[in-house]
Specification:
The protein is mainly alpha-helical and 100 residues long. It is built from 4 helices and 4 strands.
């Protein structure tokens, strides 16, 4: 990964971690029952806990770990195929904003 890729990912991380997810859930659910909302097969609570854990860990690795030595892109021989971190983090933020 190069410096510009690292910075693009960190910029996405800031947007993702500062986004008001709880407000999105409240605005998207007129019934008030958040247990009805699912992100794929995950409950709202499980989804939020998981994505915060993932992105906080990734941000920590990029800022104080071996971020520049990590690949920005990898190809897996499974259902994930090719993963490009800077694109995936940006796409996640966009998807989450447009969830409503």
């Amino acid at each position: 990964m190069n410096i510009s890729q690292k910075q693009a990912i960190l910029n996405s991380m800031e947007s993702i971690l500062s986004f008001n997810f709880d407000q999105l859930v409240l605005d998207s659910n007129p019934s008030g029952n958040v247990d009805e909302i699912k992100f794929g097969k995950y409950s709202v609570h499980d989804f939020k806990v998981t994505y915060l854990k993932i992105f906080k860990q990734l941000k920590l690795e990029l800022e104080s770990g071996l971020g520049l030595m990590s690949p920005n892109q990898d190809v897996f021989n499974d259902q994930f195929g090719q993963v490009v971190l800077d694109s995936e983090s940006s796409n996640f933020y966009t998807y989450r904003q447009n969830f409503t």
